[in-house]
Specification:
Blueprint: H1 2-20, E1 32-36, E2 42-47, E3 54-63, E4 66-78, E5 81-89, E6 103-111, E7 114-120, E8 127-136, E9 139-146, E10 149-158
Antiparallel strand pairs: 1-2, 1-10, 2-3, 3-4, 4-5, 5-6, 6-7, 7-8, 8-9, 9-10
């Protein structure tokens, strides 16, 4: 009984330490324009390459020819590790989250072409986990785990 518990603890500690040793350069595979336009709607995520201590991202969802939501994201290298912050906006750029409280997610696991960020939900109990994986140069998969519900978004690399 003690061996499985120790193995699980070692894996958790190892992942946490490994996540903290990641650099922005390790996440450079995020950079680019990623789209999913299946079914006539557009889900689009754009990421800049790392520069200085940050990366910037933008996501938008267009349905029926109209933008329904925007999301602005940053990934920054900070003293405590890599941190993602994000905010949601309606089509007129009215924020959904409280003005002073963005969603803050810390990098909790990392390996080449995969990263997971986790932190407290804003305006709801529990944790939010946002995971990214790029199984190939032309594919990005994003999984949102929130309030016990898991949503997966699959993007293909598109021309700028």
């Amino acid at each position: 009984m003690k061996k499985p518990l120790l193995a699980a603890l070692a894996l958790f500690v190892g992942q946490s330490l490994f996540a903290q040793t990641a650099t922005l350069a390790d996440l450079s595979w995020f950079a680019g324009r990623w789209v999913d336009d299946a079914g006539g709607d557009l889900s689009e995520e754009n990421w800049t390459a790392p520069s200085g201590d940050s990366m910037q991202g933008m996501w938008r969802y267009v349905s029926g020819g109209k933008t329904r939501i925007y999301e602005i994201l940053t990934i920054t290298a900070e003293d405590g590790g890599i941190v993602m912050r994000l905010r949601h906006f309606d089509p007129k750029l009215v924020g959904r989250e409280d003005k002073a409280t963005p969603v803050v997610l810390k990098l909790v696991s990392w390996k080449p072409r995969a990263a997971a960020f986790e932190g407290p939900a804003v305006g709801a109990p529990g944790l939010v986990r946002l995971s990214y994986a790029s199984p190939s140069d032309d594919r990005l998969v994003c999984t949102l785990d929130k309030e016990g519900k898991k949503d997966e978004y699959s993007f293909r690399r598109a021309a700028r």
